[in-house]
Amino acid sequence: MNRFIRLITVCLLIPLAAAQSATPNDSANKPLTIEAIFAPGGITGRPPETIQWAPDYTKSSFILRDDSGKHGELWSVDAATNEKRLLVSESKLSTLAPPVENIRDEREIERISRYHVAPYQWAPDSKHLLFVPHGQLWLYSLDNGTAIQLSSSPDPNSDPKFSPDGHRLAFLRRHNLYVLSGPDNTEKQITQDKEKKDKHKEKDDNAKEGNLLNGEVDWVYAEELGVRSNYFWSPDGKSIAFLHMDETRVPTYPFTNWMPTHPTVDMEKYPKAGDPNPVVRLGVVSASGGATKWISLSDDHDTYIPRFGWIRDGLLWAEVLNRAQDVMNLYFIDAHSGRSHIVLTEATADAWVNVNDDMRMLASGDRFLWSSWRDGTTQLYLYSFDKADPLAANAKLERQLTKGDFETLGVEAVDDAAGVVYFNCNKDDPRQRQLYAVKLDGSGFQRISHEDGAHHVTFADNGKNYVDESSTLMTPPRTSICAASGSCREIWESHSMDDYGLITPKFLEFKADDGTTLYGELLLPSQSTSADKIPLIVNIYGGPAGQTVINSWIQDWIGSSGLFHQILAQQGFAIFTVDNRGTPGRDRKFRTAIRHQFGGIELKDQLTALDQLFTQYPQLDRARVGIWGWSNGASLTLYAMAHSNLFTAGAAVAPVTDWRNYDSIYTERTNGKPTDRNTTSYADFDPSKIADKLQGSLLIAHGTGDDNVHLQNSIQMVEALIKAGKQFRFTVYPNKTHSIRGEQDRAHLFHTIEDHFESELK
Q1: What percentage of the chain carries pLDDT values higher than 90?
Q2: Residue 560 confidence (pLDDT)
Q3: Coil, helix or strand for 21?
Q4: Of these four, 86, 399, 580, 615, which has the most CB atoms within 10 Å of its CB?
Q5: What is the rounded CA–CA span in Å between residue 120 and residue 122?
Q6: Strands across the sheet with 147-149, in order?
Q7: CB atoms inside a 10 Å sphere around CB 264
């Protein structure tokens, strides 16, 4: 659920008075339509893709495609001069990095898009690029513009990585690690699970079925722990540390393709709440092959290893998270002997431990960064350890680098030479995402990004330059190349939106029943009289993975619903959203308020904010209120319609209807296991209980190929509604995944939602 929402943590730093005083453009001369929103490239155009920095730090590269996405070129921009250079022409790139539109498998497209799988990477010499078209490895020379194929097997390869010196290349194939080396690219398989004999079988089927993964990332680790790779080269290039995952006991979920005459079924490993998880362990193997050194870190085999890596040659670090996700131990490990020591423990008895990428080893070799919300907000800390004997004692807290009533949202880079840490945070307003810096001695805390709004940055590894993808609520995205010291130069901007007559939403504040501030956003139609009563549609997400009230371009939310809401506003609807307790971007108390009790707190905050909204805006019609949401927002739509009589109509897209159906990591993090006695979430989201109480006209939509929130959820809800004697609308999208992507499918879905509210609220 987490990685489907790319910009859920972006936030705003826009003056509320300015936002509320803005007026719509009455001279609109371009129609805003659902078809235009979901046309290839959208209304604003297709931004640069796969932004990377060359290893020599001198230039950034990116793919620029036309609006259709079918024609693209690979460009670079010099960090010092802003000079643009064509690296790979369209004719060559079409072969080396074909557009995802050419892929037929919707789940594979979703995987590439959701996890930002890069079609190319730089070689360490900054003179070559590696491409992986159709799972084959091609090395492209920038000097002569030619490419040579490195792989010859018909089986697809994935996650390739150069050794630090660039002389070897590791990659994954059929769940095992391989290494190419030498001038003739000799290939060697360096991990190989032995077949287990069974007296009833000639051989064990684990390898064929993909139950044993070496260095490969499974679905639940990728989705809920943000893992993008599970193997890493040692600094000297002689060894590889990898995570071994045994998914033998993990249940599978079937995906049926009903389109052929004879339907096909694809099985996916998917641990649901309370199910057996993958059994994981760390291994170290020579890059030349040989026996694997297995490392044992805990007697408890039902744990997670969400992050690990090398400190230096022969020394590893690893995070081990318990299944309840309220205790995480940081281990230092001797890679030769396997001996380990817990150097730091993060424990939150009344919450959960947030897994992130903030653990950064510094160039000094005896210090590292760590983030924690131990004092109530997520802040950065500096630790040190004995460089000569790192396993001798616990890590020592040197100092807390950041402190205040705000959230740090991720370390972006460390300039070791200057002793500066760059990170995102929402200081001054939880609705912002800005780039800040602080020195390792705790001084020099300052904002680096210039413009208000949301900033998504990609740094060069030396921390000197970065690419900034920025936007505001009413300013479409633009891309700039920036020096960390200050100046930025724009390299791409969206199409102008001036002719569409967009209406600026109003930013509002409310109070929950305990006095907590809740941030909301209201979009009012541009044409209404004081005598009109305006129907209201509530757009909700409300869960721990989604922040909706943000100063990011209105198209950057689930389903491009920001621009869809503009269409609804032009048709006379008001649109309202509020971030209830439990959503991100706020302190630990705010985020953990819903722990073990999904539904009740969220709905209470929504209704409390709505009561205050109706008081402030009496022109809103309390008798005509709709609600809609996607994913967790769809779940809360169903919950709200079953526990309140306020909502006349609702639309739920890809809802979780029973938390027993959702994956183990996400669900247990906030709800515990279904067998836990201190949780009400499973009982409160039981479809049979919700269906009997449901009030109002309901629309449900779901993709049959949704590998995130399974179609099973909606099927169970449909059955419960039928048994309860409830009428409803149900729309399915064949083979579509959680995002229900595609121009025609998106247009159909949003027209269906539009028609539903038109018929029920007008």
Answers
A1: 85
A2: 53
A3: helix
A4: 580
A5: 7
A6: 120-122, 128-131, 138-141, 147-149
A7: 10
Mean pLDDT of 469-476: 94
Q: How far apart are CA 169 and CA 179, in angstroms?
A: 5
Separation between Cα atoms, residue 547 and residue 7, nearest integer Å? 8
Q: Which two structure tokens, joined as six digits, stand for 262?
A: 């004879």
Running DSSP on this structure, what letter comes out for residue 55? T
Cβ-contact 63, 93 below 8 angstroms: yes
Give the per-residue pLDDT at 555. Answer: 62
Topology of domain 2-11+497-761 in CATH is Rossmann fold (3.40.50)
- Report DSSP state, residue 262: S
pLDDT at residue 83 is higher than 70: yes
Q: Residues 225, 258: contact at Cβ < 8 Å?
A: no
Taking only the tens place, the pLDDT of each residue in 657-715 is 999 999 999 999 999 999 999 999 999 999 888 999 999 999 999 999 999 999 999 99
Query: Poorest-confidence range of 148-152, 306-310, 380-384?
Result: 148-152
Two structure tokens written together for 526: 């541009």
Amino acid letter, 480: S
- Is the model's pLDDT at 213 over the cut of 70? yes
Region 250-278 average pLDDT = 97
CA distance 737 to 748: 15
pLDDT level of residue 185 (50, 70, 90 thresholds): confident
**Torsion 271-274-275-277 (CA) sign:** positive
Buried b or exposed e, range 21-35, using 16+ CB within 10 angstroms: ebebbeebeeebebe
Note the pTM of the prediction, 2 decimals. 0.93
Q: How confident is the model at residue 485 (pLDDT cuts 50, 70, 90)?
A: confident
Q: Cβ-count burial of 602 within 10 angstroms (0-12 exposed, 13-18 middle, 19+ buried)?
A: buried
In this structure, the number of other CB atoms found within 10 A of the CB of residue 762 comes to: 10
Tell me the C-alpha distance between 228 and 196, whole Å.
Answer: 29
Identify the pLDDT of residue 28.
62
Q: Quick one: pLDDT band at residue 278, thresholds 50, 70, 90? A: very high
E-only strand ranges, 611-653: 620-630, 649-653
DSSP 14: -
- How is residue 270 written in tokens? 């998917």
Name the burial class of residue 409, with classes exposed (0-12), middle (13-18) and buried (19+) by CB atoms within 10 angstroms of its CB. Answer: buried
The side-by-side arrangement of strands in the sheet containing 168-173 is 158-162, 168-173, 176-181, 186-189
Q: What pLDDT, on a 0 to 100 scale, did the predictor assign at position 51? A: 97
Confidence of residue 14 (pLDDT cuts 50, 70, 90): very low
Distance (Å, whole) CA 671 – CA 665:
10
Q: Hunting for tokens 């079409």 — which residue is that?
A: 94
332-367 burial, b if ≥16 CB within 10 A, otherwise e? bbebeeeebbebbebebeebbbbbbebbbbbeeebb
Q: What is the mean pLDDT of residues 606-621?
A: 98
Please tell me what DSSP assigns to residue 3. Answer: G
Between the two ends of the chain, the Cα-to-Cα distance in Å is 33
Strands (E), 512-658: 517-523, 534-539, 574-578, 620-630, 649-653
Q: What pLDDT score was predicted for residue 15? A: 33
Element containing residue 316 per DSSP (H, E)? strand 315-322
Q: State residue 622's pLDDT score.
A: 97
Give, for 684, the enclosing helix (H) or strand (E): helix 681-684
Residue among 512, 514, 501, 566 at smallest CA distance from 539: 566
Residue 375: which of 348, 393, 356, 341 has the closest Cα? 348
Give Cβ neighbours of residue 576 (< 8 Å, ≥ 6 apart): 520, 521, 522, 523, 536, 537, 538, 539, 610, 613
